[in-house]
Amino acid sequence: MTFIDTITLEVADPAAAERFYNTAFGLGAPLRLRASQEPATGFRGFTLSLTVSQPADVDALIDAALDAGATTLKPAAKSMWGYGGAVQAPDGTIWKVATSKKKDTGPATKQIDDIVLLLGVSDVAASKQFYLDQGLTVAKSFGRMYVEFASGSSPVKLALYRRRALAKDAGVSPDGTGSHRIAVGGAAEPFTDPDGFAWETTSITAAP
């Protein structure tokens, strides 16, 4: 069975990126960073979503990200699905922070309930079958529009969305070329999916 153990973002300045993520979201594992100068322009074809329990936490996390140097892509607002907004980190990664709730039940805690890696794919059905062949199982599916895979005990969920729809949801143009600047850790053997997203074998240090 294939699950996500880690997400590695390829950034120009790992030290600066680490400071940003520690300040903005308090993310340690499963997020990893490594230096890369691979060219990438425009939309990189994925977003990372942080799911929280109430609007106050959305606002708190987005405000922290903006204070740490992120830029607004979509201001936090109510929608038919709940409440959320999107920002772009200084390294170029797009982050969405959202909740299904529309009213607060208490003070903000900035607690993150789930991390979701959303891949923007050209053919949802074909990519769905590819990942089924890799051993994943479907948790939710909405035709050729959206697929979410069962995550087991993984700290990160994997979902597929049409590339143009994902870009629209993030508030950016779907156009982009070059490296995705991301690697997914968790595969028993390395592989690359139909849209060029690379999976790597997770290196886990054995306990003494």
Automatic annotation (TrEMBL):
The keyword Lyase applies. SUPFAM superfamilies: Glyoxalase/Bleomycin resistance protein/Dihydroxybiphenyl dioxygenase (SSF54593). Keywords: Lyase. The keyword Lyase applies. GO terms for molecular function: lyase activity. PANTHER family: BLR2520 PROTEIN. This is Lactoylglutathione lyase.
